[in-house]
Amino acid sequence: MNSPISLLLALQDKDVKLAAIKAKLASAPIEIQNISKEIESAEKRFEEHKAEFKSLEAKAANMRAERKQLEEKIAKYRKQMLETKKNDDYLALNDEINRMSAKVSDMESVELQAMMDIDVGRETLEEHKAECEHDIAILNGRIWEIKEQLARLESEYEDAQEQVAEAEGKLPEIFLHAYSKIRNSGKKFPIVVKYDGEKCCGCFLKVSPEVASKFSDPDQPVLCEQCGRIMYT
Questions:
Q1: Cβ–Cβ under 8 Å, residues 15 and 189
Q2: Regions of the chain short of the pLDDT cut 70
Q3: Which domains does the chain have, with CATH numbers?
Q4: What pTM was estimated for this model as a whole?
């Protein structure tokens, strides 16, 4: 293996590390955004549970108000019974009071069940609240960890850039030019690959004898005519 190739492989190794750090830096904001959505979802679920509980309370309050109105009406009819002088009117009021009293009794049973449902709902809501707070605490912890990692990655990225620049400075211009052209084209790593068994180990296609003959000149990069990668023996 000749010296320019050794330098190229060293540069490629540093470029791969740089690219990995860059990918992590790019993905971190997306991860934070996704976690933030999970937090919003957890909060939304709790608000839905809270709304269900409020609905139970509202239903019980409406029943209570309706029962009190009926009880007030019964009290009014009883007062009218004391004041009426006609037996038919008295009997009619008494029948109406009995009917409404039976309805009040039924309403009290339903209202009692509603209050029991509220007690159960309150306990369930507290459980949902604790679960939501626990989940959000974990998610916020993940965000904090990512932000901490971001700070480290930014420092590592600067160091990696410096190492790449240093490695580039050691390469002969002709090799650096060939490597940079391939790298800047968006070609996936590796872009410096071994030539083995008459094939390029980048695309695994057979290399022509004409191209293979160029390995005799160590001062010139040898490019695969299929994928354009730099090959070495």
A1: yes
A2: 1-2
A3: 11-170 (1.10.287.1490), 172-233 (no CATH)
A4: 0.71
